[in-house]
């Protein structure tokens, strides 16, 4: 192992239950690889059904302790957590880059957003308020928002630290205890962050981590009868299974799933802005492995040639290499994911011929592919309908506003959508007519931790981020008193 890896990452990790790290009950482990080189980074315990059951039992004890803290105390602790993450942001960013592959400067930004989640929801911990409901002179009626108990969190591999914090922070702020199943490719950040939480006042039993495979670890957690809710980020296929398991237990799932999000470029829009936002939206952020990537551009036919020329020039200027050296585009997160993206190169070629740029796996160690652009893509092409989750863009054209909106909406997903235009009437019509949970005008990935995020259609159920997400982790109790005598 490299020296810098030794400073960030232990040679072996366990399940982390009640603050104690130990082997899985089966003794089985999973190797974790550096996507930049393909070398083994570490190994992690593969949690079994009995490990997950134990974690949920322990979390029930942790819940009793944590809910007993005053909201003000929880608020102070979560703010201490945020401060501690910021103090160690280089270490956490290095972990994220080593296990996921992304450029280190991008990882620093995502660790900042991870810290911000604890700060933001720490600030809400003492504002989980009920309401008073007027009935008549003989009654007093009010509501209390109570925590759910033990909450389950299944986290993917693309933005592991940020997505860990996105649901764990509001769950803790509302007084719950958590059991987290990180992705098998990227378990290290979740384990190290949890140790930091414990070191800063969160009771050890209140956050537990069960790394391992989707089956059995994730499935046991999502189907566990004693959890109050499950929050899942990942593919639509797995999300459906997780949602069904939750509904079988009569608990409400929060599912943030896939996307095939359109960026519509009108003829009045600034093409330089369009190109810059496309590069950010599908290539230079996490190598396109983002649920809200701008994977489809729909451009007015009068400006499509000019847009494609500028875009291809910008794409071919991008540098590709290891995240630790901060190239523009890092490797994909795993060998299996690289195979999936390479399959889409073949699918796209079979449907459309060669891309105008890219379309190849790089012949070097690690999991690198070229940023790729297919043009003149018909709406029913698989490459235009299916989530690739990599640096692969389709470009289609439109003649008028109705066709633009029609193309934007004509997929099964509805996570986010963006528009490039100088005409604000057009921008508002776009926001009104496009079926997506978040709309970006002249900037991709706008908004932040404070703005509600989640999908229409097959992109999910519920919303994360912002003030209302804390209610994902509470249930309402109504209290009615007869005060007539
Ligand atoms: N943010 C997003 O929107 C993401 C979307 N994806 C999409 O999904 C595709 C496949 O990626 P993949 O990693 O397999 O995504 P999954 O949706 O299968 O995985 C996401 C998380 O769910 C876990 N999981 C897997 N199976 C189950 C199950 N039966 N019950 C409960 N949890 C489970 C995974 O564990 P484990 O790691 O062990 O499999 C991981 O922690 C990608 O190519 C991409 O298109 C993927 C990741 C993130
Ligand atoms: C700039 C990256 C923002 C990430 C936004 C959240 C992504 C979630 C996901 O991919 O699931």
From TrEMBL:
The entry's keywords:
Oxidoreductase
Q: Which InterPro entries match?
A: Ald_DH/histidinol_DH, Ald_DH_C, Ald_DH_CS_CYS, Ald_DH_CS_GLU, Ald_DH_N, Aldehyde_DH_dom
Q: Where is the Aldehyde dehydrogenase domain?
A: 25-479
Q: Which GO terms describe its molecular function?
A: oxidoreductase activity, acting on the aldehyde or oxo group of donors, NAD or NADP as acceptor
- Tell me which residues this entry annotates as catalytic: 256
Q: How is this protein organized at the quaternary level?
A: Homotetramer.
Tell me the protein family, please: Belongs to the aldehyde dehydrogenase family.
Q: Which protein are we looking at?
A: Aldehyde dehydrogenase family protein
Q: What species was this sequence derived from?
A: Haloarcula salinisoli
